[in-house]
Amino acid sequence: MNEKCMSYCKGLVKDFLINHPYLKTEHEDLLQTAYEGWLIGEQTFDETKGTKGAHCHKNVEYILGKYLRSKIKTFPPKVVEEDSPYWDLGDPYTIDELPDTSQPSIEEQYDLKDILDKVELTNREQEVLDVWLESGENTTAARKLEIDEKAVRKHMASVIRKVKELTDE
User: SS3 letters for the chain?
Assistant: First the structure.
């Protein structure tokens, strides 16, 4: 495996850990798994079905997803203990009992607008944010902007990080 492929795998693992931060302790295992997935992708590549890089990329994503599913089975969610303040919450709500949160209230809209006006965003982040706020979906925003959905997720992650930095101050 050449240095370019290894660097690409490191980037895929970094993106994977953004979505699954609880697996940061598994970073080395994830890298090894990604390298193995890339090598398997190179071995199973069929030139009649697309590019080698795209095939290897999909194979690495599949292998990382498989790794994630195995870890979820290994580490089930922790049971809340009785001395926790949440031990008596009771049964979860049904859909009919939950309030309608599909549209933010006027107060929430103004709070969000005030915060977003204070955040320093790049032109591209602002453009992605505006389109995303219209649709509320990564796939729709990606289609309107004619970019990959992964790029939308990265820009939105950057916006969220900047908002968090501003609100933590």
Answer: CCHHHHHHHHHHHHHHHHHCHHHHHHHHHHHHHHHHHHHHHHHHCCHHHCCHHHHHHHHHHHHHHHHHHHHHHHCCCCCCCCCCCCCCCCCCCCHHHCCCCCCCCHHHHHHHHHHHHHCCCCHHHHHHHHHHHHHCCHHHHHHHHCCCHHHHHHHHHHHHHHHHHHHHC
